[in-house]
Amino acid sequence: MKTADPELMRAINRFHVMDAIRRFGPIARVEISDRTELSATTVSAITAALLDDGLIITHQLGGIRDAARGRPRVMLELNPAAAYVVGVKLAPDQITIATTNFRADVLSSLMLPIRLQRQPVSVIADLVEDGIRRCITDAGLTMDQISGVCIGLPGVVERVAGICRASPIFGENDVPFAAELTARLGGVVATIDSDVNLVTLAEHWFGQARGLDDFLVISVELGLGLGIMHNGELFRGANGLSPDLGDLMVRPPSGNGSARLASVASETSILAEARACLTGTEHEHAFRLGRGMEKVVELATTREPHIMALLEHAGEALGFAIANLITLFAPPKVILAGATLAAGDALVEPLRRTVGELLPPSLADVADIVVHHWSDDIWARGAAAMTLRDLYGAPWNTTGPAVHR
Amino acid sequence: MKTADPELMRAINRFHVMDAIRRFGPIARVEISDRTELSATTVSAITAALLDDGLIITHQLGGIRDAARGRPRVMLELNPAAAYVVGVKLAPDQITIATTNFRADVLSSLMLPIRLQRQPVSVIADLVEDGIRRCITDAGLTMDQISGVCIGLPGVVERVAGICRASPIFGENDVPFAAELTARLGGVVATIDSDVNLVTLAEHWFGQARGLDDFLVISVELGLGLGIMHNGELFRGANGLSPDLGDLMVRPPSGNGSARLASVASETSILAEARACLTGTEHEHAFRLGRGMEKVVELATTREPHIMALLEHAGEALGFAIANLITLFAPPKVILAGATLAAGDALVEPLRRTVGELLPPSLADVADIVVHHWSDDIWARGAAAMTLRDLYGAPWNTTGPAVHR
DNA sequence: TCATTTAGTAAATGATGCGGATTAAATCTG
DNA sequence: CAGATTTAATCCGCATCATTTACTAAATGA
To answer: Which PANTHER family does this chain map to (chains A, B) (predicted)?
Structure first.
């Protein structure tokens, strides 16, 4: 049970101030005071401590002066150099890594197209470690300047325990991957999280859901993921487990029995089916080269009937699941993200149609379904943001209960 | 944005102390101090204020003395007479009302078997008002002693706005039922909430989920409801909407297309189908008398094939939905509640089997599915508890930031 | 009777947020 | 160009609160 003492008070208010500075860029103390509804005095005290700790910096010449009179505002912003973090995104066929500063600006990024599946955990950890070290060097930094590393991966992840319960990446279950990496990074703490949670946070911080406190993110990649933002907080299941959307059961395309969503609508299943129905055609070659998805996208633009039917089934299955999620959460926005969405309307149109058909009338218009095409390193940026989020809220150095120096 | 000030601190700690007293019955200050991790002094101060306000009372003669030496503990407990509240549960065919004291002990209860469907809102409000007044009188109280009224009803309810978005009870949507009743009760504030939320809270306070901070409640009555307890808090969708489980889409029994869960597994649908397949038999009469569910239960015990098949379909559909919910929330416990469960294993066994079949292996054992048969007035007790919960947390009289008198 | 033990309270201390007065730094005005 | 005005930020004093330390209360045990 968290007991409320003055220290907690300070921590809460400090977080609010940090959050306002992060969200509203260079911002004057008065405006922080307005937005947070804290008194000017309190804001002054907190920002003084933050400046003292080097977490924020002043930015004289405020630029736009709203009223031409009076003492000019001193703008405050995050000190980009206050901390550096690394974000990693693991996908079955590629590792993406990004180094960012305290403002979540990407300083360097790295993409390693490596097939991770079937590799032992230690090999994967080695690859990630090498990539992280390389990426840090690329950014002109050294390991001891790094405040934290966050690794996002598909599947069921228990963040607080640092354990990956199940993932297409690992052959085994219950992999303590956070500890595995922390051990390799010489004192730098690594955390893990579900990859969708990272996109969800990224959407909240930089993306289409800025300022929106309730929304869902559906990631459609080799696996399927669900991120839930609820009341401005990432929703995690009991024990901090992240749900795996692919494990949801849906109405199958054959119209008979039931099927796991992952077996109908994930990139993995789409590729497998596409390959099956294109065997013996001129297109088969692309699948052997690992260029299957490009071929599917290409054939979708030419409206190849088999592919269209296949994508329609996938879209309908996703629509079924999403309709149920909207029924449960009534979110004002649903964001679709992930590489598979390159297939475009052939996938998304049946999805929207199915959601429209299945949603109860009372919820017909609550959710705005949007597609967000993102570059790969943004996922890694989301991972970095996850670490920064902890740093912002952490009892930082002396910013805590006023250690006198 | 909620700013943290000393007053908030006090409110939080006061709530923790109240919660400890509520949960652990007669309890000494030392033990509160242990459990809440607040200092003995703080507990002393807070309990003094609570005593002063009459919210708790001392209970000398502590009873069991753990160590035979030392100054005896003074036990504290909720003052039953500190406040009285009324809980109401609306079902399509009956109104249940209960008056409780501050400890949520039921003082009087009332059950009105009235068919509410198709009645105009004002008529329903009149009926509820009359029932409330009657129930208060039965408890030996008067209206001005009542601190609050909470009405639970099936469907989609927006608690904070006091609006029922959609319900089988009302013919219309967006009914401002809370305002409707508050206007009739002469100053006593009425709130509304989804009926499952009330059971969920009741399970958390008095039921099978005491001390459990994550669990789901599935209510199977004329309608279907879902209650979610997450991190010790009732989970509500965006805008404070409560989800309606009946609107979820499931795999239909015919194995083709998809169907709304309510059309397969609610008591309404079960009765309709049972009536259809029993037309022309000796059993038909029971349905005309409105005794359909009793007849279904009776036939289930004799394993009548039609009924068994029907209940099996319903159980499978529920299992499908519940498997998906477990995938999403990974709750350690799922509680099934509601009148329809009287059908027993004919319904519950297929449900368990389906959940077992559909759950991904990684989640196979996380959730314990239990059935809870409850009497009707317990639902109303849950409604009362919902009001008490607000009272416990409210800035009470002078217990707030020390108004000097 | 008096030491011992446990429960509960009082006084002192320090952290915190807030309101009102004050200072700082610019523009406006005559 | 000097003083008035305006807006931003800070200083000072106060009230609240939780905590630590010392103390009192009320029982048992020797």
So the answer is: BIFUNCTIONAL UDP-N-ACETYLGLUCOSAMINE 2-EPIMERASE_N-ACETYLMANNOSAMINE KINASE, ROK (REPRESSOR, ORF, KINASE) FAMILY
Q: What is the pLDDT of residues A244-291, one digit of tens each?
A: 888 888 765 555 567 788 888 778 788 787 788 777 777 777 777 777
Residues in A touching B363 (Cβ below 8 Å): 156, 247
Instruction: Please give the average per-residue pLDDT across B288-305, as a whole number.
Output: 79
Torsion sign across C-alpha atoms A403, B4, B5, B9: negative
For B226-242, write each residue's pLDDT tens digit.
999 988 889 887 777 77
> What's the confidence (pLDDT) of residue B401?
30
Task: Indicate the Cα dihedral angle B101, B102, B105, B107, nearest 10°.
Answer: 0
Question: What's the rounded Cα separation, in Å, for the pair B133 and A36?
Answer: 45
Round to whole Å and give the CA distance between A248 and A331: 19
pLDDT attached to residue B141: 96
Average pLDDT, stretch A151-161?
A: 90
What is the rounded distance in angstroms from the CA atom of residue B233 to the CA atom of residue A206?
Answer: 29
The mean-pLDDT minimum among A339-353, B169-183, B264-278 falls in B264-278
Q: Closest nt to A11 (CA→C1')?
A: C16
Q: Taking 70 as the threshold, does the pLDDT of residue A354 lie above it? A: yes
CA distance B237 to A229: 11
Q: From CA B392, how far away is CA B249, in angstroms rounded?
A: 38
List of residues 6+ apart from A21 with CB closer than 8 A: A27, A32, A56, A76, A77, A78
pLDDT at B274 over 90: no
pLDDT at B350: 92
Protein-strand D interface by C-beta, 7 A: A 3-6, 28-30, 40-41, 44, 47-48, 66-67, 69-74; B 6-7, 9-10, 13, 37-42, 45-46, 68-72, 400-402, 404
Q: Which of A10, A36, A328 sits opposite B243 (nearest CB)?
A: A328
Helices (H), A153-238: 177-184, 195-205
Q: Which amino acid residue lies closest to nucleotide D7, measuring CA to C1'?
A: A70
Determine what percent of chain B is predicted with pLDDT higher than 90: 48
For A17, the 3-state DSSP assignment is helix
A395 strand C contact, CB < 7 Å: no
Helix (H) or strand (E) holding A146, with range, is strand A146-153
pLDDT at A298: 81
The residue in chain B having the minimum alpha-carbon distance to the alpha carbon of residue A158 is B330
Integer Cα distance of A199 and A89 in angstroms = 10
Structure token digits, residue B233: 């808090």
The protein residue nearest nucleotide D27, judged by CA to C1', is: B71
Q: Which of A3, A196, A353 to mutate to test the interface with B (most CBs of B within 10 A)?
A: A3
pLDDT value at B403 more than 60:
no
State which nucleotides on strand D lie below 7 Å from a protein beta carbon. 5-13, 15-21, 25-29
pLDDT band at A325; cut points 50, 70, 90: very high
Query: For strand C, which nucleotides have at least one atom less than 7 Å from a protein CB?
Result: 4-12, 14-20, 24-28
What domains, with CATH codes, occur in chain B?
6-78 (1.10.10.10), 83-201+379-392 (3.30.420.40), 210-373 (3.30.420.40)
Instruction: Please answer whether residues A117 and A169 qualify as being in contact, where contact means their C-beta atoms are separated by less than 8 angstroms.
Output: yes
Closest-CA residue to B93 (of B112, B114, B109): B114
CA of B30 to C1' of C9 (A): 13
The C-alpha of B242 sits at a distance from chain A's nearest C-alpha, in angstroms, of 8
Q: Output DSSP code: residue B340.
A: G
